[in-house]
Protein: 3'-5' exonuclease C-terminal domain-containing protein
Organism: Streptomyces haneummycinicus
Amino acid sequence: MGRQGPGGRGAAVRGAGGVSALAERLGMPAENLITPDTVRRVCWEPPQPGDRQAVASALGAYGARAWQVEQVTPVLVAALASAADA
């Protein structure tokens, strides 16, 4: 069973799904948009608070480029919020 709270399996599943949907809209492979490892790390050990600025900083710390941070941050913020509400 996944961890409860702001991170864990639920956040990781939601984050990966959101990234896949965004990548499809952008016409690119999800792994080119952001590495699956980065999504897992941010979702399993989310920054606190889980707001846009903290998530963007975490993505940057894991090596995401500025354009990746810009695209992916809203997706992961939503995934973390949704998992916390579940």
